[in-house]
Amino acid sequence: QIQDLTFLIKNYYLTELYLNNNELTDISGALKHLCSLQILFLHNNELKKLGKTVKELKGMISLQTLNLFQNPLAYDPDYRLYVIYFLPSVQLLDRKLVTQRERESALHLYNPKRTWVMQSVAFGRRVDTSLETMVESSRCTQPVRGPIMPSGNGLLCSFCRVPFEDPEDAVLVRATTRSLMQFSSVDWNKVATCQERRLKNKEEPLEKLTVQFR
């Protein structure tokens, strides 16, 4: 029948805490100092506010096992993904392992911008929006056109060393140039060892295979 957690104020080094089957309605300000906590059972209580409850647990960087089921907050339709996203250290939630697919779904739901960046850049996947569409949207009503080369002085693209009258043309050319990817490989069986280099007066150049693609 525990309703108040103020008695935990000095228990900084707790690693396991079992508060299940009580009458807790709010844990705000009562647990955030427990940075060493690894296991926390809060199931079968009266916790109603998901945001406040998760906010209290955010500082627990060592928390791996968490039970919150049989609380009113657990009936929120996005409850599980919300907890997974804001408490990334938790590995076992409500007696069920957190999967990689759930982490990806939580990231997509609560941080769609980061998901878009990861899919389009980090893993080299194609973005649904084409380059021309992006240029059109950035220029509003102006149609997409080719770069205009000036006859006199103009803005110099520091990457490609080609002058442009319109700064956006320089940005466009640089963006398409930077999308080039290059991979190189070497046959290490043909690379001379340190001893072989000392015995030879002249070192032979490496045979390197380079592949470029966009």
From TrEMBL:
InterPro entries: Leu-rich_rpt, LRC72, LRR_dom_sf. It holds the Pfam family LRR_9. PANTHER family: LEUCINE-RICH REPEAT-CONTAINING PROTEIN 72 (PTHR46759:SF1). This is LRC72 protein. It comes from Tychaedon coryphoeus (Karoo scrub-robin). The gene is Lrrc72.
